[in-house]
């Protein structure tokens, strides 16, 4: 099954976003801080005390029926009638995520959820809650097995593409990806973070944030969903 990359502008209206913000303000979302041990020293040196806040908002909870009503019918209409939203959270990103996939990796320290029996990973959706001078970059390359680009290059020996020029590198990828690793990647899509737009890409596609800190953006917030669909659909 192909989970095509797609952007839909104005997927959520300003009113719908206001409603979702009210749910967050009412304390309906869980809260956890993403700050892996491995990142602490480097980020503390830059005055950053976390990679991100993750505010969980599971859409099938009895108390979240309005959120379900806002999101699910549109996702069923645009993407798949049997789509299942395994994880829905608000990402408050304080430090850009480097290149990774959102597919399952048993060994990885990550928040990517495992598909239930009979289900397969489908799309990651990102819906920015405001407009920011920042982008998500989605690459053509994908892996169902390796979440990180270095291990993927090491294990699968992909061809050298040299498709990302210096200007593009300087614009998006300084401190985000090693040039030597990016030589194996080509950009499929650059998704600008615009309020209410939706980015859809296969969870197995490699993707990353640009270095928004370099653009003077201190943090950015979005709804992020990891989804599955039935295997034989
Ligand atoms: Fe991701």
Can you lay out the helices and strands and say which pair or pack?
Elements: E1 6-8, H1 14-25, E2 32-34, H2 37-45, E3 52-56, H3 65-78, E4 84-93, E5 119-128, E6 135-142, H4 149-156, H5 166-173, H6 179-182, E7 187-192, E8 198-202, E9 205-209, E10 220-230
Antiparallel strand pairs: 1-8, 2-3, 3-4, 4-10, 5-8, 5-10, 6-7, 6-9
Bound molecules: fe (ii) ion.
CATH structural class: Mainly Beta
What is the global morphology?
globular
| Biggest sheet architecture | 7 strands, antiparallel
How many separate domains make up the residues?
A: 1
CATH superfamily membership, which one?
Answer: q2cbj1_9rhob like domain
Q: How many strand segments?
A: 10
Q: If you average the pLDDT, what whole number results? A: 93
Radius of gyration: 17 Å
Small molecules held by this entry: fe (ii) ion
Strand percentage lies at 25-35%
Order of helices and strands: EHEHEHEEEHHHEEEE
Q: Roughly how much helix do the residues carry, as a percent range?
A: 10-25%
Widest beta sheet: strand line-up: 1-8-5-10-4-3-2
CATH architecture: Sandwich
Q: Could you name the ranges where pLDDT drops below 50 across 5 or more consecutive residues?
A: none
Would you give an account of this structure?
It is built from six helices and ten strands, in the order βαβαβαβββαααββββ. With 233 residues, the chain is of the alpha+beta class. It has one domain (6-230): Sandwich (Jelly Rolls), CATH 2.60.120.620. A seven-stranded antiparallel β-sheet has the order 1-8-5-10-4-3-2, with no helix packed on it. Strands 7-6-9 form a three-stranded antiparallel β-sheet, with no helix packed on it. The model has no long low-confidence stretch (mean pLDDT 93). The site of fe (ii) ion has 4 residues, from loops.
């Amino acid at each position: 099954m192909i989970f095509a990359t797609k952007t839909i502008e104005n997927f959520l209206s300003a009113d719908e976003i206001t409603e979702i913000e009210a749910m967050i303000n009412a304390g309906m979302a869980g809260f956890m801080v993403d700050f892996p041990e491995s990142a602490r020293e480097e980020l503390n040196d830059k005055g950053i005390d976390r990679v991100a806040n993750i505010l969980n908002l599971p859409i099938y909870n009895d108390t979240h029926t309005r959120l379900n009503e806002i999101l699910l019918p549109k996702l069923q209409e645009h993407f798949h009638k049997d789509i299942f939203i395994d994880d829905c959270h608000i990402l408050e990103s304080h430090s850009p995520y480097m290149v990774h996939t959102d597919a399952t990796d048993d060994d990885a320290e990550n928040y990517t959820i495992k598909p239930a029996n009979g289900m397969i990973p489908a799309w990651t959706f990102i819906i920015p809650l405001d407009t920011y001078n920042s982008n998500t970059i989605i690459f053509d390359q994908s892996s169902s097995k390796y979440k990180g680009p270095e291990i993927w290059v090491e294990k699968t020996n992909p061809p050298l593409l040299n498709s990302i020029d210096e200007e593009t590198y300087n614009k998006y990828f300084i401190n985000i990806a090693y040039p030597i690793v990016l030589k194996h990647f080509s950009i499929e899509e650059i998704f600008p973070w615009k309020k209410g737009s939706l980015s859809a890409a296969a969870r197995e596609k490699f993707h990353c944030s640009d270095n928004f800190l370099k653009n003077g953006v201190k943090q950015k917030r979005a709804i992020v969903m990891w989804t599955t669909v039935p295997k034989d659909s």
